[in-house]
Specification:
Layout: E1 14-16, E2 22-24, E3 45-49, H1 78-90, E4 95-99, H2 109-117, E5 124-129, H3 134-144, E6 148-152, H4 158-165, H5 170-182, E7 188-194, H6 203-209, E8 215-221, H7 238-248, E9 253-254, E10 263-267, E11 274-278, E12 291-294, E13 299-301, E14 309-311, H8 312-317, H9 322-334
Parallel strand pairs: 3-4, 3-12, 4-5, 5-6, 6-7, 7-8, 8-11
Antiparallel strand pairs: 1-2, 9-10, 10-11, 12-13, 13-14
Helix pairs in contact: 1-2, 2-3, 3-5
Bound molecules: S-adenosylmethionine (SAM) and iron/sulfur cluster (SF4).
S-adenosylmethionine (SAM) binds near residues 99, 191, 225 and 228.
Length: about 350
C-alpha cells in the first residue's frame, strides 16, 4: 500500500516498510524510495518492449504462426514511451534496454533512442536484437545515442540457424555483429541460448569466436517457458558448459562481477573478448534483481515470472498526473516478491 513507503520524492534515509520494519540506510546514494522494494533492491534498470512482433520465429520463443498481436491502438506510442521513461529516469533509473519481440522492426526505433538520449541521468541506452536489421540501422542508432548492444545468435552453422529461427538471415546477423564491433561497441554482447542436442556442441566454437573480436558471448541457460514445447531436459547447466570449456582452456580466468549483474564472466587469456554465463535456471538471481519491465502495451511487470501487472498505459490515457503515476509504480514495486515462484526443481 502507499503507506508502506515514504513520499515518492523523499530521498531520505529511513524507509518505512511493510510489517513496520524500519531500515536505516546509511550512506545511501540518492535514490527514490519508490523504486526500492521491501527487500532493499533499487530498481535502476528498466526494460521496455517496443513491439510484440518479430521477423524470426525462434522455436523456443514463438510458435510458427507468430503470437496474437495487440491492436496498434493499444500499444504505447512513441510519446507515451518517452513520458514513462522520463518518469523512471527522474526517479533513479539509469539504464534502459529496448527489447521485444524484435525492437528493430519498430519504425520509430531511431527516434525513440534519440528522445531517450535527451533524458538527463540516463547513462545507458541498450538494445537486445536478433541482428537481422542491424547493419542497416546501427549507424543511425549509434548517432541517436545507442551505447550498448546485445545480439542473439545461437549457432555458428547457417543451416542450424535456419532450423532454430525458422527463417533465413544467418549472414545478416553475422554482418551485424561485425558492424557493431567496427562502430566501436565494446563489448558487443552475443546472447546464445544453449540447448542440449542442438548447440551444446558449439560451446567451444563460440569461445573461439571471442579470440579476435571484442565480444562477450553470453551462454544463456535455456528456459522452458510454457508452451515452447521444449522440455527442461534441453537445459544445459552453466557448470556443465564451464567444465567443457575448462577442459579445453584450463587457464580460463574468472572476471570480477558486478553486484546486480546476472552474468558470471570468464576470459581466455590473450583473447580479445570474453564469455559469460546467464544462470537463469540453475542459480536464480532474484536477490540482486534490479529490473523492471514495461510491455509493448504498457503494462509494468516487476518480475519476468510474476503475473501481477499494472497498466501504465491506461493510467496515462485516463490523464493520471505524474505524481499519481509515481504512486502507482511505487506501489507495484513495493509488492515485488522476494523471489519468483519455483520453476521446476531448480528455482525453489
Ligand atoms: N528479438 C530480440 C532477440 O531475440 O534478441 C529481443 C527479444 S528476445 C525475447 C530476448 C532474448 O531472450 C534473446 O536473447 C533470446 O534468445 C532470449 N530467449 C527467448 N526465449 C528464451 C528461452 N526460452 N530461454 C532462454 N532465453 C530465451
Ligand atoms: Fe523471440 Fe527474439 Fe527469436 Fe524473435 S528473435 S522469436 S523475439 S527470441
Amino acid at each position: 500500500s502507499s503507506s508502506s513507503f515514504l513520499h515518492p520524492h523523499s530521498r531520505g534515509q529511513i524507509l518505512i516498510l511493510p510489517k513496520n520494519q524500519h531500515f536505516v540506510l546509511e550512506h545511501a546514494a540518492p535514490f527514490s524510495a519508490f523504486l526500492m522494494d521491501s527487500f532493499g533492491r533499487q530498481h535502476n534498470y528498466l526494460r521496455i518492449s517496443l513491439t510484440e512482433k518479430c521477423n524470426l520465429r525462434c522455436q523456443y520463443c514463438m510458435p510458427e504462426e507468430g503470437v496474437q498481436l495487440t491492436p496498434k491502438s493499444e500499444l504505447l506510442t512513441t510519446q507515451e514511451i518517452i513520458t514513462l521513461a522520463r518518469l523512471f529516469v527522474k526517479e533513479g533509473v539509469d539504464k534502459i534496454r529496448l527489447t521485444g519481440g524484435e525492437p528493430l522492426i519498430r519504425p520509430d526505433v531511431v527516434d525513440i533512442v534519440g528522445e531517450l538520449d535527451k533524458l538527463e541521468g540516463l547513462k545507458t541506452i541498450a538494445v537486445t536484437t536478433n541482428g537481422i536489421n542491424l547493419t542497416r540501422l546501427l549507424p543511425r542508432l549509434k548517432e541517436a545515442g545507442l551505447n550498448a548492444i546485445n545480439i542473439s545468435l545461437d549457432t555458428l552453422v547457417p543451416a542450424k540457424f535456419e532450423f532454430i529461427v525458422r527463417r533465413k538471415g544467418f549472414h545478416k546477423v553475422m554482418e551485424g555483429i561485425h558492424k557493431a564491433t567496427e562502430l566501436g561497441y565494446h563489448p558487443v554482447k552475443v546472447n546464445c541460448v544453449v540447448m542440449r542436442g542442438f548447440n551444446e556442441d558449439e560451446v567451444l566454437d563460440f569461445v573461439d569466436f571471442t579470440k579476435d573480436l571484442p565480444l562477450d558471448v553470453r551462454f544463456i541457460e535455456y528456459m522452458p517457458f510454457d508452451g515452447n514445447k521444449w522440455n527442461f531436459k534441453k537445459m544445459v547447466s552453466y557448470k556443465e558448459m564451464l567444465d567443457t570449456i575448462k577442459q579445453r582452456w584450463p587457464e580460463l580466468e574468472k572476471l570480477p562481477c558486478e553486484t546486480s549483474s546476472t552474468a558470471k564472466s570468464y576470459k581466455v587469456p590473450h583473447f580479445q573478448g570474453q564469455i559469460s554465463f546467464i544462470t537463469s535456471m540453475s542459480e536464480h538471481f532474484c536477490g540482486s534483481c534490479n529490473r523492471l519491465r514495461i510491455t509493448a502495451d504498457g503494462n509494468l511487470k516487476v518480475c519476468l515470472f510474476g503475473n501481477s501487472e499494472v497498466s501504465l498505459r491506461d493510467h496515462l490515457r485516463s490523464g493520471a498526473s505524474e505524481e499519481e503515476l509515481i504512486q502507482i509504480i511505487g506501489a507495484a514495486v513495493s509488492r515485488k516478491k522476494k523471489q519468483h515462484a519455483g520453476m521446476f526443481f531448480v528455482l525453489c
